[in-house]
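#lab-general

N.A. 3:47 PM
ok so I finally got the sequence cleaned up, no stray characters, all 665 residues accounted for. can someone with queue access submit it? mine expired

B.Y. 3:52 PM
send it over

N.A. 3:53 PM
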Amino acid sequence: MSAPPSDATATAGPEPQGGHARAHLAVLAESMALPVLTGIAQGEVPTDGFAPLGQWLEGAGPASPLRRMAEGFDLSRAELEVVVLLLATDTSERVARAAAEATSAHGGVVGGGLPVWLACRAVAGLCPSLLAAALPLVRFGIVEPEPASPRIEARLTLAPPVLDRLLGRPVRDPLVSARMAPLPVPATGPGEVGDLPTALGRSLASRGPLALPPLVLVPGVPPEEITTALAALGLTPWRMSGNDVPEDAVARDLLAARWSREAMLESAALVIDAIDGPSEGPVAAFADRVLGHVLLTGQQVPDGIARGVHVVPAPGDGPAAAGRRWAAALGPNRAARLGREVDRVAAQFRLDAKGIATAAAEAAEAVDAAPDAAGAAAALWHVAARSFTPSPLPGVHLAEPAYGWEDIVLPPATEAALRRVESHVRHAARVFDDWGFAARVGGRGSWRGRGVAALFCGPSGTGKTMAAEVLASALDVRVMVIDLSRIISKWVGETSKNVAAVFDAAERSGSMMVWNEGDAVWGTRGGVANATDRHVNAEVGDLLQRIETFSGFTVITTNLRQAIDPAFMRRFRFVVDFPLPSVDERRRLWCSAFPPQAPVEAVRWDALAALPLTGGSIRNVALGAAFLAAEVGRPVDRTMIEAELAEELRKQNLPVPHVAWEATA
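B.Y. 4:20 PM
back already:
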């Protein structure tokens, strides 16, 4: 902040920026407060003497301390006007004398500060209840009331740090400076900031329970990168150790309130170096009491956080840097043979430096033995796709795909849509990097915008999950199936932690994520009846943002397309419908339901194809009939198929139809 001007008699008016604006605020405050207090001293009924303040605020820039307080603490008009009134009594001799005369004229005792009763007469709408300890003026130390009984006789002054800020003198509160300090911002050139500011900005702009921004966990991110990212967002970075959070609850709450005030006046964010052990509880309690932005280093969130949590993982290499790392690990000869396929592998599998070196060494023999460049590329891709196996996560199953294109029966339109999905994943590196589309969708050198998110819609049993496995098999990647019921938690902060772990595992392994029964989460947003509802909605929004910015391949399945909130549909690059199979498709499904080595008597498949079953039901019937045949030691026959057909339809609460085994003329 610039120093205040020396000309204290500058003309009042709405200056939007700089030290002159602050000096003009003091002069404007005097011009408004003086006639109001003089009139009260003379027994007049005050008019709306602070009306010009609204115009001044409209013209004030975002750096104005008064505007920051107004917006950050959501101060009412009366609360703002009492701040300006106290500014005038603290800085203008004429206003101070007028306040003393008004106090004396109404039988009050003249002394330091402004009596509450006089402030209430001067400011329309101000009442003693606005000075309650839980409300912003007192809670955050903007106004300091001298205790008195009754409260109406208490005397008000502006807190010295607030007064100094309004006058353009950035004096910091000693209580704050004793436990935390601003961080120097490293010098960075154009393009050196990376994706971290975007990720942090997205998290800090969201709101969790109690309308607070969430606590942002930044595990594994170097402090200088956090500092640079916060500065790029226009925030002043401050830092404190978790060890410096007071153990005493009263001292902790006071520090949180004072920091909230300083952060609002300075547009600052606090980075807490988290620690494990006894201080976890105080850190969580302190973070919940801070009104502004709080970031936490370390690997996990302390237990007990109530404000909501977002996790921003450390950004890895960009696509170009990852490609160079792969090329170096493979060596010049292999890299030259593979050509642009190295970049394709780098774009799909977000391995760290150690993982890349290990995968390149493991794939070397197969790459060298391949008969051509295409075979060498396939060998490298196969090894890279299986180089990273994440730690087991609740509700997450990682597996090799079990089906290929030859195993699935689909309508031509559905199969064509799936082939397009495969093409988008297969050729992402060429389109985004070679042809320059990366700069259009996510920023040059960024992973953003590269991912493919597809919504598979259709009744149960129509092949949605199987189709996802077919695509994974065609692309030679593993499938990561996520159980939403175990990821989405009612406990504040748990969902974001679970989501962050899943996405980190998917990005590093290059696996295809499959989220089944997506309507349970991406359905029409529910009402907000309490803080938990707000938390759940906010964390579902976090999940959606992560899917939208995920650089890999995501499939969400749903039985109820109409239940998906229309606002979420735009996040999917593909929406693929899986209708009930036609008669011809059902015949093909029945013909392929029994493996060639299974003993099956001659069956007229047309008779079974006439029944309106899904592919899933057909497979269930065939499997059940095979077990009946194994039990009695005979080939599968009509009666066994009919018995299992009846059992399958009973499960679905459907009537059992008659099978017309004999052809009719």
